[in-house]
Write a structure and sequence with these properties.
The chain is an alpha/beta fold and 326 residues long. The protein has 16 helices and five strands. The protein has helices at 2-21, 25-34, 42-58, 62-72, 79-83, 88-97, 100-109, 115-131, 135-148, 153-169, 188-205, 223-235, 248-260, 289-296, 299-305, 317-325, and strands at 173-181, 213-218, 239-244, 264-267, 282-284. A five-stranded parallel beta sheet has the order 2-1-3-4-5, sandwiched between helices. The radius of gyration is 24 Å and the shape is globular.
Length: 326
């Protein structure tokens, strides 16, 4: 009987694949839904979830996209591997489209199927709840993670980091503003101009709020020093927002450090990171890479200039960020 079920599952998979190749998406999907993946194995099982994923994408089914990708990432062992997974953003974005109850169902149901990927989604869920004002909900997710993933180093590291952020968040002084720019050396004149501009704005604001405090730090155009200064601004002065990133190499490092502590970071230059690495704690004053690309690739520009686009970029992480957005 087991052999018959195995054969039947393969026949349905082949039928689904055949209908998919001739663009009969709905029919292909019906055969996938009738199938039982428990009777497939190895390459056949992988083909089943790949096909299910492709069909779910075409039919705009976020829950099924999420489930298919969780099954395809069951062998991932580290958050770092998931970060470079080619469908990571599709996984995260479709998971976010689900209702809160659906998200919790997915996390519970698939925690043993794909533990690292589910722990990664749980991390996103905890941060989403916490920074949207549902601090208790964020802590609930952390408690759930502690029970489910006590043997996963990445999950334990995040839990520790989140606990620190939550404790620090309660100490934040909404009237404290940190500014990190070069104030000395050959580039000091640029930093001092920034400070002059900020002081002008704050003078006006102080007519409304006399309790504003500005903490100025000189990073000497050194990203390593910037990270130390951000830690000092957060832990010692409990600033609510940090202004910095006068140059891109500083912006990237400073934002990543500020993000660790859950503090809003306003960057004076673009932050060259993939979109998935940015969150609501980042404001890019000159416009993000994403917004720049969207401005260039408007339908009007493409219709006027043509749809063949040539890209010249440096073979660096910064350059690749632009290419990835295209």
């Amino acid at each position: 009987v087991g052999e018959d079920l195995y054969l039947a599952s393969n026949i349905k998979l082949n039928l689904a694949s055949s209908f998919y190749r001739i663009d009969k998406v709905e029919v292909a999907y019906s055969y996938i839904k009738k199938n039982d993946a428990n009777y497939l194995k190895g390459k056949e099982l992988s083909s089943f979830y790949k096909l299910w994923f492709n069909l779910a994408v075409q039919l705009s089914k976020p829950k099924e996209i999420t489930i298919a990708l969780l099954n395809l990432t069951k062998d991932v062992t580290r958050f770092k591997d998931l970060e470079v997974y080619k469908y990571k953003e599709i996984l995260v974005d479709n998971f976010k489209l689900l209702s809160q109850s659906e998200r919790m169902y997915i996390l519970d149901e698939y925690s043993s199927v794909s533990p690292v990927a589910v722990a990664y989604l749980a991390k996103k869920e905890a941060l989403l709840r916490f920074y949207s004002g549902d601090k208790e909900g964020g802590v609930d997710i952390i408690s759930w993670m502690q029970g489910k993933f006590s043997s996963l180093p990445d999950a334990l590291s995040f839990i520790e980091d989140f606990t620190f952020r939550a404790a620090n968040y309660s100490k934040i002084n909404s009237n404290a503003i940190g500014v990190i720019v070069p104030l000395t050396g050959s580039l000091g004149r640029y930093g001092n101009k920034v400070v002059e501009g900020i002081n002008t704005v704050l003078e006006k604001e102080k007519n409304i709020n006399k309790n504003l405090n500005l903490y100025l730090k000189d990073n000497q155009n050194n990203s390593f020093l910037s990270r130390k200064l951000i830690k000092e601004l957060v832990l010692k002065h409990h600033v609510a927002v940090i202004v910095g990133g006068l140059f891109p190499h500083l912006a990237k490092e400073e934002y990543l450090e500020a993000r660790k502590y859950g503090v809003l970071y306003i960057s004076l230059s673009p932050v060259y990171l993939p979109r998935s690495e940015k969150n609501h704690l980042l404001i890019e004053i000159p416009g993000s890479v994403e917004s720049q690309i969207m401005s260039v690739l408007t339908p009007e520009n493409l219709n006027h200039l043509g749809r063949k686009v040539s890209v010249m970029y440096p073979w660096t992480d910064d350059g690749k960020v632009y290419v990835d957005e295209l």
